Amino acid sequence: MVRLFICILLLGIGAAQYQLWLGRASWSRLSELRVILNTQREGNESLRRTNEALQAEFNSLANNQDAIEERARRELNMVKPNEILFRIETTEEAARKSDAAASMPDVDAPDIAAGAKPTFTPKKSDLYSAPKNQRAPKARDRRQQIDAPGKTNGAEPSPRRW
């Protein structure tokens, strides 16, 4: 009986050791989870700082008219009435503008050869659609008009076409 108790005790200790070193809750899994937790905390801290900056900007725009004016001037290039704006560009800004303008196609003299394929395929909704009162009747409506009784003027009815 004592030997059986000792065997069961050793099996229990072995199962606990297996779970501790190799199972779902092992030491290696615990270290992986700690790394994931630290990464998540760093991401949360970054998002918290971003949220604080946005909240501060919101409060300044909501409570300060000068902040709204400054932002409109900076981002939208707005000016007051009877005010003249002089903008001084750096050489990098001027080069960037000229590169952007050079990459745009010339709309005044397009580079399209005669007989070239179209650059897009129109959808059915892009094409002209006549008003309902000017549209041709659908095929089934034409069949009904032909096969309608009383429209044959005494002649034999026409056979039904499928």
Report on the biggest sheet.
none
Quick one: how many beta strands? Answer: 0
Shape: flat
Order of helices and strands: HHHHH
Radius of gyration: 40 Å
- The structure class reads mainly alpha
Unreliably modeled segments? none
Portion of residues in beta strands equals under 5%
Q: N-to-C terminal Cα separation, in Å?
A: 93 Å
User: In DSSP terms, counting alpha (H) and pi (I) runs of 4 or more, how many helices?
Assistant: 5
Helix content: 55-70%
For the residues shown, what is the average pLDDT?
79
Overview of this structure, please?
The protein has 162 residues and is mainly α. Helix content is 56%, strand content 0%. The longest helix is centred in the N-terminal third of the chain and has 37 residues, at 27-63. The model has no long low-confidence stretch (mean pLDDT 79).
Throw out a few tags for this protein.
56% helix, mainly alpha, 162 residues, single chain, flat
At a glance:
The chain has helices at 2-21, 27-63, 65-76, 91-103, 139-147. The chain has 162 residues and is mostly helical.
